């Protein structure tokens, strides 16, 4: 069963800080430029805790993790962060425009503590592989700070929309603003985030009960989840307390007896989103390959033809229309490439079969899988995996054709993962990469089928948009 718990969150005091200056994107989405911007935005920006700066001369006694712990302690002492008076769940909505589209969507869920289960317990399911380095980094941070500052994004299925009805009720003429949020902020991508604090014990227990039979799929946060499970097991052994203490199926939790974890590390902060509700967007994550000695795009295309039908993409008319310009400025040249890439993506998305685009210095190619050749190449995988673009890309193209198996990619770091197709293509055009692969996004149904079957896809197979903001709530273990 999926156990969830209310908690007394640490939250920023809006009277002491400008909330938009202190929250961040998740740590693994923070680029060096974003890190600098967050540092400059406020002395209380959460980046100092979740992704602080490494300094020359760092030692075991003084380092990025000890500084994070000291910073968090100081903010609590100065009441920049204050603990809520009552245990609560938190309704959470995000209103956003789908990238490269005018479509506006709203994604709704709620923040709570979720019990930490081993995958073998078949309550929580993963959908992609992880990097060991990221997990060791998060473990050091968790142990130093004794706090979970970021949420795991969890999916569950409930066609009856039980939690949504309990938390948000029916829409009024002004949407959910008829029930005003206690926090509303806009992030750097124009996403509007709203949070509702829910402290009614009856409401909390109804939601806890509604979630008890749910299976959970990790959408975002695999590294943090697996690190948290490892930490929970370690603490379980130290405290001599079982991590998964059996609970009587008929046990009723009274309003005055809200459920709590057996020990603090047995749970982690999560946002739960119903995959049957509208508002979920999955974007593709494109691959850029660099550092290949002696790479030849004509040779690659020749070898790839054993597995794919290959069509060169040539936007001659488009190029000629822009070619009438006597001299292209840098901005015009960039716009020309960006428009070409978006036309390629539109072509790719119109293909119903498994396909992706290879961008090379010599041309751009649409690769559509040959079913028989692909079935033979991936015969060790179940059919549900063989049909996935990202699996064919990793197992056939990166591994068989380019010699980049998972171990090599992890060791050498010569595959870059990017959300923006035009950025990926530009790296090839500018000579900074050998080849880029533009792919279609995984569908929610594909993710569900793979995850619940106990399978995993390659790392960075999905990009759920928008990300959950870090800093809306913090779960302090002490």
Describe the structure.
The two termini are 26 Å apart. It contains 17 helices and 21 strands. The protein is globular. It is of the alpha+beta class and 478 residues long. It is 35% helix and 21% strand. The chain has 2 domains: 4-282 and 466-476, no CATH class; 285-440, no CATH class. The protein has helices at residues 19-22, 32-41, 47-50, 64-77, 132-145, 162-168, 201-211, 222-239, 297-304, 316-323, 330-349, 371-377, 383-386, 389-401, 406-412, 421-429, 444-452; strands at 4-5, 10-12, 81-83, 89-97, 104-115, 124-125, 147-148, 152-156, 183-186, 192-198, 216-220, 267-274, 281-283, 286-289, 308-313, 355-360, 363-369, 415-418, 435-439, 463-465, 475-476.
Count of DSSP H/I helices: 17
Low-confidence stretches: 172-177, 248-255, 316-326
Radius of gyration over all CA atoms, rounded: 24 Å
- The overall strand count is 21
- Structurally, the number of domains stands at 2
Overall helicity: 25-40%
Q: Sheet with the most strands?
A: 9 strands, mixed
Distance between the termini: 26 Å
Strand content: 15-25%
pLDDT averaged residue by residue? 89
Category by helix and strand content = alpha+beta
Spatial shape = globular
